[in-house]
Amino acid sequence: MARGLVKRFDETLAVDGVDITARRGSITGILGPNGAGKTTTLRMLLGIIDPDEGNRSVLGHADPKDVARLIGYLPEERGLYPAMKAIEAIAFMGALRGLPLAEGRRRGRELLEQYGLEHAAERQIRKLSKGMAQIVQLLGTLVHEPQLVVFDEPFSGLDAINQGKLEVLIRSLADRGVTVIFSTHVIAHAERLCESIAIIAGGKVPFAGRVDEARDRIPAQVRLETSDSDGPWRAALPEATRRVGQFWYFPLPETGIEPLLRALIDGEAGIQSLSIERAGLHDAFVAIAGEAAAADMVTTPEREDA
Amino acid sequence: MDAISKQAGRLSLWQAAFVVARRDFLAILFSRAFIFFLLGPLFPIVVGALAGGIGAQVQSEALSADVGIAMPAEDLDAMMQARDELAARIGPAIPPFVELERLEEGEAFDPVAVLEGREGRLAAVVTGTLEEPHLTAPEANIGRWSGTISMIAATATRSEATSYPTVESTTVATSGARENRGRYQTAQSGMVLLFLLIMLLAGMVLSNLVEEKGNKIIEILAAAIPMDAVFMGKLFAMLAISAIGIAVWGAAGATILTLGGRSLSEFANPGVGWPLFFTFGAIYFAMGYLLLGSIFLTIGSMAATVREVQTLNMPVTMAQVLVFFFASLAVTMTGTWIEFAAMAFPLSSPFAMLARAAVDEAIWPHLVALAWQALCVAVFIRVGSTLFRKKVLKSGPQGASTKKRRLFSFASGKNS
Asked: Is the residue at A207 inside a domain?
């Protein structure tokens, strides 16, 4: 979808050779801390700005403008005309993508109804709550029934209930064959929703691929609980083992768990419990993008309404 | 572009401009701001009328001055009588006389002391006799009244009453001088109206853009349609709004004239005639607005905040005022290089040409000027929309370059 995208603003290299691929009908997350280059990458994908280097292909077209009516975009900085009625705002956003106003109003009412906001149709945006206004904008993004939807930090500003509703909506879009790309700095959303991710840090993409592949970058962690604290069996534990009380933590050996388990049993380690824990996306992110980038990320959804 | 691309691609420039213009037009039309816009011309008219009335009153008070008279009693009475007789014929050019003192024979009078006492509204003092009147006054008033006093004294010394023949008169609708003066007044009024309207609209389109940037909807527009279309949509929406405004103001003006029993035929006929004058007025207004509106919109695209807009807006507005003065000057200098320069310079051309339509009959210069202005409009819109596209998404707090923000901070007096 995008190969080697480069974008400079004056002397600043904002994006440095980004590669991203999103399969049709999939959900792809672009993860990165603030200022990593997520928005610039999305803007290049959408044709809002052109890359200085590299090429892109959106829905099979080299120029995203050629398929603009098939794309829906929700920018990070939400914007609506405050004096406009909700239904008119949705229809206007559809009209920008070539949908006739009357059809936009009809579909807009249906969408509002689906979202339980039919009562807000004739209300001015300025009279809606922030969350409701955001949903109106979201519906405006979808009213022309796009084949590719790009959300820039879609969960930002939504309360927990609406974040949940949005997750459901994103899944339903993908179920209908719509390709969804969203950027986020909340790892949990990506972990729950995405089939594939691209991690952006410092304008580069150190990883792009399936979520499973990202997790597999870190070996699974073994958690062993023993009744004995010492004995000849300890020689069987890998070098990187950490001890916390009765627990021993170490990466799953490349040879698998069975040889190690046999050595522990033979050494009478007094195994109380043993579990193999697959690395979470956060750990994978830390391993791929580094501690500094991970420090700006949020592992679990924020209480945006707080 | 293949068939699918055509169907799925962005709206064309004009389609997208129409979508933006339709939204802006309806949003402004149904806003309270539109009511104020319609009432807009009332404010300068009311303020102008009030200021004119007060100014005239102040000037009349300031200019009214008495001439004191101190003469022997017989001469004084004769002077007073002669003054009244002449004032009845000539009018306010004869100053009012104030009796200061009836002098006895050989009695001295010091007019300098009276004037230096600065009492009342005395501007001059007449002493001496009918045969040898003496005027004491500041230099300007001596030049102004010495002839008048001489004439009054001459009238006062006549032994017989002057017989004034009755002047028969025939009233005509106009004269060359009156027509000429009327045309210049029409030219001046037309230019002022054009200037006020254009500035009002250009300001409104700028506010509209700033509001839009504040609403952060600009990125949604940028993602969906060409930015040139946003620029043009905004520009033409305001032009359409102004068309409604002009229709309302025109209808109101015509109604007022009709109710007042007046018609355009009472006013000096513009060089090209009223119908063409109004037509040219509308076209020159559109040209002038599109030229200045393009500049204002481009400025708006480069600024991130209302304060920055004001900072940049002010020098442009002042420059436009200068351009207007330049065009006004050119009206009085027909046939000179100043007039040609005013007609050729794009920003003053609409004003200068409207003035020309008022004072000159020739039509071909307007066709040439309109072609030139249309070319300039196309260039201004093209350049403006290109800059708009480049700048509008960069002018947010993150996008503005450090150098530019420093300049704005300096210009707007921000310390931090």
From this structure: yes
